[in-house]
Amino acid sequence: MFSFSKTAGVLGIDIGTANVKAVQVRKSAGKTILERYGLVNVIYPTESQAKFDAVKQTAEILGQLYEKAGFTTKKVSLSVPSNVAFVSVLNFPPMPEKEMQKSVEYQAKKYIPLPISEVNIGWQILEETLLKSPHKDAIPEIKVLLTAVPRNVINNYLRVMELVGFEVAALEIESLSLIRSLVDAEAKDGILIIDIGAKSTILSYVHQGHLMATRHLTIGGDSITSSIANSMGISFERAEQMKRAVLAPNVVSPAAQISRNVVELIRSEVQQFMRMTENESNGIARIILTGGGSKMPGLAEKFSALGPKVEFGNPLAKLNFPPELENKLVMLAPQLSVACGLALRQE
């Protein structure tokens, strides 16, 4: 989305609300080799606790992760959460690139609820189609993906990288990273990526390999855990253990019902999002589940009832790595999808 320099072998870094993930790859003999990866849990102080410097603390966490994982490159690609970005698909008649730039900036004012001077705008042409009209011949139309991120958000990320001593090669919203790692380049069908994180869930609608729409839900894996803990008066840790088993179809318990209620909230939001995409194309043919929360037993069955085929995303499919690492990597793969997509960005 926003490029700062051109380089190969970039370290992909995904800074989440519960984990920081990083993946480093290199290209060799036409193959993309997974060299190193790292994941560390983070616990930020709550609002009721003393104020802290999030930028400084994140930089310290990244520095420690860099050393422990043995990364060797200082050039990085970063993702920003989709909930802080503005994403729209605009339609334009055919025009030269210079005119398109001006047109995008002009139209952006209608879709971005901030002064244009306060955001970084990125855009890319998705496709050229023929707009059908009942009264005249089909009119050529160009679809353009508009993305914008507040400058203060970008500056905070850049400050973190500066404190660690990293050189930023690129910065993009996480939905684009997910597409790169989970969707085949030749995919033409409508795809919904459901990324269930600890604190939130990101829905990304993909058509013909391009991002067409996103939605941010303030519900994640921790929502289920917290609901179980609060309702049953148990610790968060104990509730987390219970959550991983209670979504199985035949489990009957208070914790199981609580979990299903939260999952039903996510499913309801997904269903509404799917209805919205029906006007964009032929709808959604596949659902790809990813993120740490996607590993809950029985989750795929819940989404299968919506109609599209449900599958689990595999960010490792485009990477080569030693067979002895497969078991461990498969366990971590759902949490590494964004970082893998970022690492693949320059390949």
> How many beta strands in the DSSP annotation?
14
Number of helices: 9
Along the chain, the helix and strand elements come as EEEEHEEHEEHEHEEEHHHEHEH
Radius of gyration: 21 Å
CATH homologous superfamily descriptor of the largest domain: ATPase, nucleotide binding domain
What name is given to the CATH topology of the largest domain?
Nucleotidyltransferase, domain 5
> What is the residue-averaged pLDDT?
85
**First and last CA, distance:** 15 Å
Structural class of the secondary elements?
A: alpha/beta
Query: What is the CATH-assigned architecture of the largest domain?
Result: 2-Layer Sandwich
Largest sheet composition: 6 strands, mixed
**Helix share, percent:** 25-40%
User: What is the CATH C-level name of the largest domain?
Assistant: Alpha Beta
Give the structure's gist in a few sentences.
By secondary structure, the protein is α/β, with parallel strands linked by helices. The protein contains 9 helices and 14 strands.
Report on this structure.
It is a single chain. The protein contains 9 helices and 14 strands. Helix 4 (about 175-180) crosses helix 9. It has helices at about 55-70, 95-110, 150-165, 175-180, 220-230, 235-245, 255-275, 300-305, 325-345, and strands at about 1-5, 10-15, 20-30, 30-40, 75-80, 85-90, 120-130, 140-150, 165-175, 190-195, 200-205, 210-215, 285-290, 310. By secondary structure, the chain is an alpha/beta fold. Residues about 1-5 have low confidence and may be disordered. Strands 1-9-5-2-3-4 form a 6-stranded mixed beta sheet. The chain has a 5-stranded mixed beta sheet with strand order 12-11-10-13-14, with helices on both faces. A 3-stranded antiparallel beta sheet has the order 6-8-7. The protein has 2 domains: about 1-85 and about 150-345, Nucleotidyltransferase, domain 5 (2-Layer Sandwich), CATH 3.30.420; about 85-150, Dna Ligase, domain 1 (2-Layer Sandwich).
